[in-house]
Amino acid sequence: MKYLFDCLRVDLSFGTGEIYMSDLIGIKALGFYGGRIFLDVGELAIARGLAPKRFENLLMRRKSLAMPFEDPVSFAVNAAKRVLDTLVSNDKNRIRLLIIASESGIDFGKSMGAYVHKHLGLIPQCRQFEIKQACYGGTAALRMAQAWIASEGRTIPGGGMALVITTDIARPVRYSYAEPSQGSAAIAILVGSDPQLFALDFGASGIHTFEVADACRPTPELETGDADLSLISYLNCVEQTFARYREIVGEVSFTKHFAGLAFHAPFGGMVRGAHRTLMRKLGVKNQAEIDADFALRLMPSLIYCQEVGNVYSSTVFLALAGILDLLANRPGVRIGLFSYGSGCCSEFYSGVVQNDAVETLKINSVSDALAGRQHISVSRYDNIIDSSPSLSGISDATVGRTVAKNSVTDIYDNEFSEKSLLVLERVEGYRRIYSWS
Question: PANTHER family, alphabetically (predicted)?
Fold first, then answer.
């Protein structure tokens, strides 16, 4: 089947009648929260005695950190609030689907969406659930939202909207090469018809899935796996998903069809290696040409990933935000995305930059959200990790201002107090209680 990219109006026939979709579906707005604290990973590499050459291949500068009184729920709400606060009139009531994508779940049964729904003040007629598929979870959630908009969402007065939130908090694997790249962040994506930012190409998607033991979280506090196997799996998936994408859409040129690219970025060196491998598989042998293409179409997508780290389900969207900053003033150009989740599931898909992208990005820019973060030393970073309580399976705990006063008083006072950010206050009978700072 060849997908007609230039056709912006799609007819869908379902036997008993015809559904005529005159609207595109995609990202209307994007909100980001990456904490208020960061660590210089160059300082971390020196403190940990990491080999300079191997560390340089990470292409990392800083990593975002979560405080003891933050968790995936507070991160999710703080990211989404940046989007919802910009909506006009009763538009928030058009949000009828909330999907939380995370591999940092806080309960084996109850969805984080219940807490997020409450603190965002969404209406009761909003379906909510949580989804997990490692770092691919965000793309899975976006695809579900797209399908819902195309079916049920269009029956809602004014047009239904979906809110997809990716949220993950790393539990650092100290004294490893993974540690510098492990970040914490959340991204909220408002999905609907007539997208102002990024329209998804309808039906243009290549999938590749198989079982592999490359990385996992067997307990809430442990991240483990086989780094070499993960790299091999990632490289295999980028090749196979793009091959399948071309089977679906036609023999498009990898180098000419996409003005920019956004790959899931565990670290920048992995993205560079995947790009190089795919280019060679596609017949480009000249290394200078490969390097120039990476610098032009992929390196700009790493601008925020280098500042935040690998944020799991959010990472591909953080990369998308980076390349959109470059291409927002070029409506109509296409961006290719590659999403990978360990275990594994992967997808290559695409979308088109929209006319209102520049103004939309000004309202909620990632760079503004990152501005003013506080730098901490490696020794303090270690102290915070050591003093952060593990709340997994804990029935009762005091967190919030009590912990802040005991260990990170200055951070709470300077970066959270009176800033209207959601923080975790305490746990009572396994139920998490939050408050606004």
Answer: 3-HYDROXY-3-METHYLGLUTARYL COENZYME A SYNTHASE, HYDROXYMETHYLGLUTARYL-COA SYNTHASE
